Every structure is written in structure tokens, then in C-alpha cells.
Amino acid sequence: MRHLAGLLSNSVVFVLLAAGAVPVFGQPGVPIDIAWLPITDAERNMKAPVVDKDAGVEALFWRVHVRDEVLGGRDLQRVYYHYVRLKVFDEKGKDKAATIDLPFDDKTSIMYVVGRTVKADGTEIELKKDSVYDRDLVRAGRTKLRVKSFAMPGVEPGAIVEYRWREISHDPRSLYMRVQFQREFPVQKVTYFFAPLSRDYTDYHMAIRPFHCVLPALQDDRDGFQSITLENQPAFHDEPMMPGEPNVRAWALVFYSNGERREPDKYWTNVGKEQYNRYLKPAMKANDEIKDVAATAVSDAKTDEQKVLALIQYIRKNLRDLFGSDVTDADRARIIKEMPKDRYRTAAEILKSGVGDSSELNTFFAAMANSVGLEVRPALIADREDILFIPAMTDQYFLENVDMAVNIGGNWKIYDVSARDLPSNMLSWREEGMQALLSDPKKPTFVAAPIAPPEASARVRKAKLALADDGSIDGDIDLQYSGHSAHDRRSELKADSDARRLEVYKDQLAKLYPDGEISDVRIENASDPEKPLTLHYHLKMTGFAQRTGKRLLVQPFFFQRGTAPMFSAGDRKYPIYFPYAWQEHDSVTFELPPGYALDNAESPGSLNFGAPGAYKIKLMTNSHQLISDREFTFGSNGQILFETNTYAQLKKIFDEVQRRDEHTISLKQVATAEAK
Amino acid sequence: MKLALAVLIFAPAAFAAKEIPSWLQEASTMSPKAEFSAKVASVILFHEEHLTVAPDGKWSATERGAVKILQTSRHAPSAWRPYNTKSGRIRDFRGWLILPSGKQIEYQKNNILDQALSSEYTYDETRAKRLDCDPDAPVGSVFAYEVTQEEDSIATTYPFFFQESTPVLMSRFSLSLPPGWQAQAATFNHAEVAPSIEGNTYTWQLRDLPWIEPEDQSPSFQSIVPWIGVSYFPANPTSTLRSLKDWPAVSQMLSGFMDPASDPTAAIRSKSADLTKAAGTELDKIRAIAAFAQQTNYVEVAMNLTKGGGYTPHAAEQVLTRNYGDCKDKAGLMRALLKAAGIDAYTVVIYSGDREFVRPEWPSPDQFNHAIVAVKVSASTTAPTVLEHPSLGRLLIFDPTDPVTPVGDLPEDEQGSFALVVAGANGDLLKMPQLPSASARIERKVEGRMDDQGHLTAHLLTEYFGQSGAGMRYFSTHAEFDQMKKALERMYSRQLGGVTLDKITPADHAIENRMELAVDLGVGQFGQFMRQTMLMVKPGVLAPASDYWFSKKERKLPVKLEPRLRQDSVVIQLPAGFVVDEIPDPVTIESPYGAYHASWKTANDSVTFEQSLEVKETRATPAEYAKVKDFFDKVLAGESAPVILLKH
Fold first, then answer.
1. Measured between alpha carbons, how far is residue B134 from residues A350, B106, B138, B139, B338 in Å?
2. Counting CB atoms within 10 angstroms of each CB, which of A590, B101, B515, B581 has the fewest?
3. A135-139, B280-284, B426-430, B631-635 — which is least confidently predicted?
4. What is the Cα–Cα distance from B574 to B566, expressed in whole angstroms?
5. For residue range A419-473, what is the model confidence (pLDDT) as tens digits?
6. Quick check: B127 and A136 CB within 8 A?
7. Are residues B110 and A550, on separate chains, in Cβ contact within 8 Å?
8. Which residues, 6 or more positions from B266, have their beta carbon under 8 angstroms from its beta carbon?
9. Do A98 and B297 lie within an 8 Å CB cutoff?
10. Interface probe, candidates A135, A557, A563, chain B, greatest B C-beta count within 10 A
């Protein structure tokens, strides 16, 4: 996706070259890692991993020299010289070290791949040049995804495997560089060496911002490089429900800086003004066609909110999402190729092409909204799966996406046209809770994108079921999903025709209820995110209640039957981040078979787990019915992020909820007269 | 209709189809005789592949297709043709979209994608060209394509599948041969399809092929859909362009590719001697060499396929030095090491993944995707995977690519499969050994104690014999312990609710081909107390036996059951003071699909559950489906049957 960071970087290139004013050449070339470093006796004799005792392979070191060069006086190129030395300890490590894939794209070249294996007995086996195979994964237009693949020779436990390669980035916008300290296997020593452009070209210097690690200061190293080293970095393994990987993994952002301390208020004010004036204002300009289209779209709207809704609905109906499923790979490649490289496409260009990425669709929305008299400001916002942004992170790099803020009755409300499967007043959960910078020609400000309350993403389920004395049930089920809870289901359903989606949903239900017969399936509002997604079906199912000699065992919480606990792992490394707050409200009525009465029945009881939410259940009976009512709320007041040290408590809560959801009620056959 | 398609429709003349080909003109008028389920998003009106073979064996294939869109769906039609980058090319690729209005649009070249066939293979020279239909093409549109591929190939056999799951109105394969050449075909999953012959062009065709809806536990689609295996015979066969009239001919051809690589060199002899120096018997030698071949790193190689590269291993010494190779490399290395130790062996080609795939009626190397080894053994070597052949003698079958299946066993999907022993003119297609289900049984013993709050602590000892332990063995040797723990936590959580795993101890008894896994676990709430006067426990959930479940939907495809055997015993010490009120009656079910026995007993404040399940290898017809489902429903009911106890 083309985001602001790219445009920002371009402007830095301009600054750099203007500051330099020297037309040719960059750093003098110095040979970097052109030979294998000596293997020490300690490395050769190492019998067990150092960082992780269970690791089958560890990197003894991972060193990367990064050098920026100016070619021909204008083109910036960044060259990475990678050198990895692995020690293989056992069979599982052998598997990991045996084949290597180096992925790259069409703006990157990978060259000079060399490798060797040094066995425990000292035998050396070189990686043959013809064993390095270049594969294109996808080729459409000029967009390529490629990989250099090779199998390392002679890999066995005890061996040292090392390989080097050079990676050249031709992307002039790549001035921001993420350097990783954690890999797929543990690393004993990670060192980055940086050679920025010299003072001949820029007054800027390289700055480093660490994430989830503590970095020592840059050290002056040989040949004009500065280096930084971290030791004993464990392998990175993801966990379910964790914050986005960059929010937990050890890495650093390396970028050019003029060294000035950025005072957040001043910095963001400048960014907000510049982005508005330089890039977004021209892009948001509406031509006559856009004005006409907008005027028609809002012709029935009375209030500003209605106008916003009408415009959003128009765009969602008439323009396609560049990265959506209704654009073929080939079309996507062609459109990206035709995009201007140094500016946003204008609203008129977006309308003409009929397709846009998320930022472009929002830009187009702004053009339409402006033309019908709404006050609109582009809102630069972070993706929280990427960065949990706070304004103290004074770099526009972090504000990846462009939404639009509209002044509704004196308050700025943020909208994202591209969040197609959500109501127009909701943002993708990846942007909820983030601070958005409202760009403005005069006074940019930050506005918090709210986390939608649990009730905005509700799951309301109702069942009215007749329970027979053989344990079978027969009845109607109604489901209603809204907000984020509807999003994924809606995404799945909306691509199909009405008839097809019914059949597909029937199949899903058949898997859910293997012993069920499904009929009268209805789906409403699959394509209308402004309304709750509504599903209905009739279910006849044998074996729902378990029949013993004289009892029927029934799970009154019908919708939770057979669900697994939310968390299974005993321990946890990273915080727990629920994507969004949600609420479940389930009510189930069982008509009981004649001749049965409750047998030692009790309710497992409600749970109150404090501010994040609650679990409230009621079990009620009368002479012929068993009624369950269950309400589960989680993420109230935006509490969806939990520190690692609360995991045990959180797991306990969800285990307890699951246990209560699985609660069984016993019904016992009684004498007919008694039953009456 | 959104703008993109509108752009396509109203674009300048470059987009508009000049004139669609006559075959498409004709195909686009076809319509299905019957209505399809709404799940059927499209129907193939016409599909044709025409293979034209030149006297030197090179061929060109022209594939044509016309697909009518019946329902809006997330799966728009797509045309796709693989080719070999070294020996072949896609000469031409055209595509059209005919809108319901009759408007005809021709796709431009930049709509054609070029992509790697596999993102997995380290070395792979096969690619594919792809054309996607517009996702917003309206219902009633016809998406069509015509693609011509050229290959410089040595093959003289060719498979053609008349359909996949999408319904097809007309499916056709044509073969044009040089004068004097002949062709024949074997038909599978359908009554024989006879060709029409005109000059030296053979044409096989089928009409009105139904929609095949994928169903769980059904045979693979190659075992269901109609297809033909075509063989053509050069007028003057040569050593490179052969007539593959029978299996020995195929064997002879493959021997030419495979045997030279397994000649032992000095390095091979030295390694063999080193590996076998402590081996006392022939079987010990084989085991030592097999273990070495197994540890050789597996690296996928798909190079030079059309020139026999798919059958030509690298020289054994090269594989030894690099310590990596694909299946045929590993087989070749093992043969060379055995030969150096004085033991002859053959490469065996087989289809990995579906034991029903290879059909004896069609002698063709195209039926195989994997290479294993047949070791010629003396009478002193006995193992369940030894088979006797009248001329090749006693053959011990072994797969060196499988890193966890020891000598004397075979991967489950290879057992019972037809495979070709590559032994020159003496080669033969043999049915691979199939081991009894007892050799792959699972036995679990559980001893647990439940407190008066319903918390259970239990020790689970599971023994996996033979192939049942392959997955666990791979996990314990190739995954980090933490990964294994997390996977087990997930599995037990799903079965039992909130669990804690206190101790996990895998133990590999490789010589006995037995894997053991001991787990100490705690279950937060195992039984359910009701008013502290009644207790319900389901001991069977600690030993779920069946991994089959079937829905009530009407079945159209056969049901394929793999053989299984497991025996379980669960003993749970209960909190004191409860007496049995209800206990399930023993269950005994004998059916053509398997046998299930379960019993529950209580004594001395404990409940004991014992069960055994044997699933018989079965291919049940759709008519039998209800009976198959009933059997497994009863098994599931047994596993989850409760014992009800009352406070004394």
C-alpha cells in the first residue's frame, strides 16, 4: 500500500541532495566482509546453545554492514552486506539451517551469495555458485516477488554453516530502515555497521530509535562505519492475541536526522501543515465531475452526518479497493505501475480509474465532502498492528494511513471510507485507540480515534428449541452481529450471490451441527454494513442432550456448546491485545419434554472481572421450560490490552467462563402424575 | 457493475475483441441441460486440449476453455497453464470475456500473470501463466481462453482429466501423431471412453459431467473424476523416444536414468564401511545405511523435468558430500551405500499421498511422484515390509525420505500402493506391503485423581506403535520442546477445557518402532458437581478414540476409512462418599467398518473405563453412508458417556 511514509522519505532525499550540492560519488568503497572470518576454537567446540538451551541451531553472529551511496550524483542506493554464522546442534537445527531463502522485491537486488559449511572434523564444503537459484514467485507487469534459494551443503549436527550476501536497495524512498535483532533462531551476537552518506552530501546523520530493546550508543568502527551490537537475542515466536509483531519484537528504526531535538507540539504542527498544504490539499481538489457526483450523492441528506454517510456509501458502491478481492493481480500491478511516484493521485484521477488504495479512497471522500460544504481534514493515523503510536514518537514515518476527519457539530469525527465492511462511523480495529494527526493549514491537532464500545460489536443470539425425550432438539435460531463482530462474517459472505451465500452458510452450519438438519436459512444485510448482519435458520438435531438410563443431560448455553477455552498455553511471553471490545448476549429457551423435571440443578453463577467486563448468566425454569440468558462483555472502557504478568489471571477468567458455559443441567424422569 | 469492468467494456478498440474464434462462438451458445446447486459458481461449457506430437517427440498443446459464470462468488474463473522454463514455453495465451449482452472483449497481454508453480521448492524450474477473469464479471458472462504450450519432451504418455469439481458440458482430448505412430488409452473412474480416429488424430470426449462437491473423508479427486492415461508409440522407437507398452518398458527407461547415479565410488565405499563396521547382520547393515540416508537433508528439486530430470538422481557421491537431496537422490545414495556393503537394491517409484492413485492398466512414469528403495535381502532378514517376487527375490521396501519411519515399516499412504520396482527389463509393478492395523495401534493408559472440587490430576501414558507414532516422533525430534508443549496444550484444552501440563516426557523406542508420550496434566474442572449431591464424570473424554465425524448431509461420494486400532484404559479415583447411580451399559459394536467395545466399572471410589476401537480400511459407497455414520456416532457416544454418582 502506498502511504505517507514514502512521500515523506522522498522529501528527505530532496533535502539531502539540496544540502549536499556535490554532483557525484559518495562514500569511498571499502571491502566489507569479503572473506570468511576465522572460526575460533570456542565456536568449533561449542556443544550446546548459549541463548536458548532447547535451540537446535543458533547464530553465533549476524552482522550487517549498511552503506548509503550516491550514484551519478543523484541516485541514492543503500547496500546491505549480510554475514551469518550458524552453529548446528542437533537434527532440528539441521533442518532449519539446511535450506535458505532470501526474499527480495523488484526494488532490491541480491548478489554475491556465498556460503560454506565447516563440519565438526574441520572439513569445509563451499556452496557452489550454481546451487544458488533465483526464483520469481509472481511476475505481473513490473511487480515481482522473488527469492534466492539455496541448500547449504554438508549440514549436520556439530557443523558451522555460514553465508554472506549483498542486498542492494534501489528504492529512493527507503531512507527509513528497520533493523531486526530477533530472528527465527536465537542469535548470540547481532551487529549492525552503518556508513551513512558523508557530510559532502548532507548535514543529516543517522539516528536510531530502538523498540523493545535497549541499545548501546553507536560505536565508531573501522572504515568509517559506526556499529551497534546486541547479544543473546532469543528466537522470535509469535503468540495468539499478541500485539502486532513490531510491538513486541526487538528492532530499531534507523533514519536520517538533522540531530535537532524534536519538540512534539512544534514538530507535529509543522508536519500537519506541510502534509496538508503540500500533498493533501492538491489531491483533495474537486473538479466539476466530482462536484456533480457529490451533489447527487447527498441530495437526500439533511444533516452533516447524513451527508457523510451518503458520500461513504457512494464511494463504497462505485469505487473498488486496490487491494480488495475484486481487483485481479494483473490489474493491481498495472494500476500501481501507473501511479505517480512523487505525489498523491488527485481525486479526479482516482475517480477516473475507479479504484484506489485506502488512503486514496479517503482523499476522494475529502474532495467530495469539501464540495458539498463539509469541513474535512486528512487525519494521519498509525496502524496499531504495526506501531502503538504516541505523539512523543516524533516522526511522521509512524503515521502510515490517511483517514478523514469531518467537523460534525463542532467535533471532529474520523472516518475511513476503505473500511467497507464496517458501519461508516467505525474504524478498522487496527486504527482504534490511536492518536490521529489532523492536518490543517493553520493549526494541526491530535484527535484520539476512539475504541468502539463493546455494544458496538455485539453478537446477539437467540434460540427457541423444543427438547424431546430422546435428546433431540427442534427450533429456530436467530443471530445478529454488528460492528467488528460482523466484519469477518460479512467479508466472507458479501462476495457471493444471495443464493450462493445461503448454500455456503448451510454448509458451515452442517459442519457446526453434524447431527443437524438445517432449513429455512435466511441472511439479511450481508452487504449493508450500516445494519446488523442477521442470520436465521431452523435446526433439527439428534443427540443434543445426552440420554442416560433415567436422565437427560442438557447444556443450557446452547451457543457455547463445544467451544474451546480462549487461551491454552500455560505461560506467556508477550502482552495480550484483544483486537476489539465486544459483547455477547445469548438467550435460549428449551421446551422440556413431558415427564421430566430438574434434578439437582444449579446455576454456575455470574462472574464479575472488574473494569474490562462481566459475565452474567441466569438460568430459569418453569413447569415446561428451561431458559438461559447469558451476557458476556469484554473490553469496556477501551480495556483490551493486558500486560504479560496478568496472563495467568486472564486465562483463569476465560477458563472459568468456558467452564460455566459448558455447564450441564440434569433432567430426571418423574412419575407422570408428579410431572403434571 | 463497478468502474473497472466498465473501463474494459468502453475502452478503445485495442480492448475490443476483433473476432472471437469459431470454437468460442459455438461454445458460448451451449447451455446446461439441468440446473445446478447455487453453490456451483460456474459451468465449463467447453474444455479441449489438443496435443500435437512431432516426429522428434516434441509436442505442442493447445488448450481451450469456455466457462460460464452462474453465480457471483469469491472464486472468479481463472485459466492456468504450467510450463517448463528450460525446455518449453507458452507460445500464445489469449483470453476473452463475453458479456450477457453479447459484447465481446479480448484481454490484453498484461493481464497474463507469470508465476512460479510452487513457492515451496528450493530448486524448481516449472512456472505457470495465468489469466484471471474479472471478479465483477456479471452472471451469464462467458470467460474463455486459448493457450498454446510447446515442450521439448521425451515423454510418450500423457494424462488427461476430463474434469475437476466444476461441471463440464463438453470435455475433449485430441492427439495428433506423426504418420505410422499409434496411440491407446486406459480410462479410469468411468466406462471406457473409445476414441474417434481421423487420419492420425485420436479424440476422446465426454459430455455433461456433473458437479462434484468435495466431501470429507472421500477418496482423492483423481480416484473419482474420469480421466484417461494416453500412451503413444513412435513408429521407430529410439533409446530416448520409447514405446512404453508395459511396465518392464517403463522400468527399462527409468533404469537408464536412475541406475548410473548409484554406482559406488571410493568415497561411498569408505562411508559404507564406516556406517556398517559395527553391524553384525544384513539387517543391521541395512538399518545403519538407512538411518544415514534418512538424515540426509531433504531439499526439493524439480529441474530438467521434461528431459528425465524428474527421474535422474544426482551422483551418490555428490549427495553424500552435500548431505542433501530429494527423494530420488536419497534413494540413489542408499542404493550406492548398500551396494558398497554387498547388498543390491532397486529404486522404486511410487505415488506419495494417495495409495489408490497408481493404476496398473496404464504403464507410464507419469503416475509417480516419489522414489523409495527395494533392498534385496536374504532369507535371514525378516521384516513386515519384505515382499517376495518370483524373479526379483525378497525385497525389503523402505522410504529414506521419511525421516521418522524406520526399516521394517512404510509411510501409511505408501502401504498397499502400486509401485514400480525399477530393475531394467526385469522391473515390475508391485503392490507395496500393507501392515496390519495392530502394527500401528495406539494404547493409552490414564490414571487420575479427582478432588471434591472437580479438579483432576492425571498421568496419561500413550504408546504409539508404527505409523501411528510417526507424527509424534517427528514432532519430538524436529520441533522445539516449547512448540510441542504448546501444541499439546491446545489439543488437551480443546478436549478437556482449561488444562495445565505439568510434565511432558516423549520417549522414542525406535528399534521397537514405538513412541511413548507421558503427560502429567491438571484439569480445572473435570466432572461436574450438582448441588454437591450429584457428580457427573465422563472418563472417555480422556481417551478420544475416533477422529471421524460425519454430518447428516446427503452423501454423494464414497467414504474412505483408513485402518486404525486403539485401546484405552482410564482409571479415575473419585472423591470419597459417592455411589453410582447410573453407569453406561457396556457397548459392543461389530460392523463392516470396524469394531468398538467400551465398558465402565466402579469400585473403591474409582471409575474405570476401557475401550477398544478398530477401524477397518474401507471404501464405502454413498448408499452405505448412514451405516458408516451410525457406527462412528455410537463410538462418539461411547466416548462421551457419563457416569452419574450420588453422595452417599
1. 19, 12, 9, 12, 57
2. B101
3. A135-139
4. 25
5. 999 999 999 999 999 999 999 999 999 999 999 999 999 999 999 999 999 999 9
6. yes
7. no
8. none
9. yes
10. A135
B53: CB partners within 8 A, 6+ apart: B59, B175, B176, B177, B178, B181, B232
Residue A654: name the closest of A662, A643, A666 by CA.
A662
Task: Give the confidence band of B303 by pLDDT, cuts at 50, 70, 90.
Answer: low
How many Cβ atoms from other residues are within 10 Å of residue A117's Cβ? 25
Q: A225-234 burial, b for 16+ CB within 10 Å, e for fewer?
A: bbbbebeebb
C-alpha cell at A106: 523488484
CB contacts < 8 Å between A and B, how many? 224
| pLDDT class of A495 with cuts at 50, 70, 90 | confident
Q: What's the pLDDT score for residue B447?
A: 97
Q: Which of A293, A521, A568, A607 to mutate to test the interface with B (most CBs of B within 10 A)?
A: A568
Q: Tell me the H-state helices in B451-582.
A: 470-478, 481-496
Determine the Cα–Cα distance for residues B195 and B205; give it in Å rounded to an integer: 8
Q: Measured between alpha carbons, how far is A356 from A135 in angstroms, rounded to an integer?
A: 30
The nearest CA of chain B is from the CA of A601 a distance in Å of 6
Report the distance separating Cα A321 and Cα A332, nearest Å. 10
pLDDT-based confidence at B502, cuts 50/70/90?
very high
Instruction: Please determine, for residue B2, whether its predicted confidence score (pLDDT) is greater than 70.
Output: no
- Report CB contact under 8 Å: A151, B6: no
User: What is the full DSSP assignment across A464-478?
Assistant: EEEEPTTS-EEEEEE
Question: Helix crossing, B327-340 with B247-258: angle to 10°?
Answer: 80
User: What confidence category does residue B144 fall into, taking pLDDT thresholds of 50, 70 and 90?
Assistant: very high
With CA atoms as reference, the chain B residue closest to A655 would be: B498
Give me the pLDDT at residue B243, please: 92
Burial of B381: CB neighbours in 10 Å, binned 0-12, 13-18, 19+: buried
Asked which of A39-48, A89-98, A336-345 is least confident by mean pLDDT, the reply is: A336-345
A257: confidence class by pLDDT, cuts 50, 70, 90: confident
Chain A: closest CA distance from residue B292 (Å): 11
H or E stretch covering B49: strand B42-53
Closest CB to B113 among A101, A139, A497: A139
Predicted-complex ipTM score: 0.88
CB B613 within 8 A of CB B596: yes
Which amino acid would we find at residue B126? T
Does the beta-carbon distance from A658 to B498 stay under 8 Å? yes
Contact B454, A664 (CB under 8 A): no
User: Which among B530, B556, B629 is the top mutation candidate for probing chain A, defined by the most A β-carbons within 10 Å of its own β-carbon?
Assistant: B530
CB A381 within 8 A of CB A436: yes
Tell me the nearest-neighbour CA distance from A95 into chain B, angstroms: 7
Contact (CB<8Å) B552/A326: no
pLDDT higher than threshold 50 for residue B381: yes
Q: Per the structure block, which three cell numbers stand in for B323?
A: 548431505
Q: Are B507 and B516 in contact (CB under 8 A)?
A: yes
Encoded amino acid at A251, one letter? W
**In this structure, what C-alpha cell is assigned to residue B624?**
452405505
Give dist(CA A175, CA A103) in Å, integer.
20
Whether residues A155 and B633 touch (CB distance < 8 A) is answered with no
Most confident of the following: A84-98, A169-183, A465-479, B553-567: A465-479
Taking contacts as CB-CB distances below 8 angstroms, the residues of chain B near A507 are 39
**Cβ contact A655–B324 (<8 Å):** no
Q: Which residues of A touch B553 (CB under 8 A)?
A: 510
Alpha carbon distance B473, B509 (integer Å):
10
Look at residues B323, B374, B324 and name the one whose alpha carbon lies nearest to residue B349.
B374
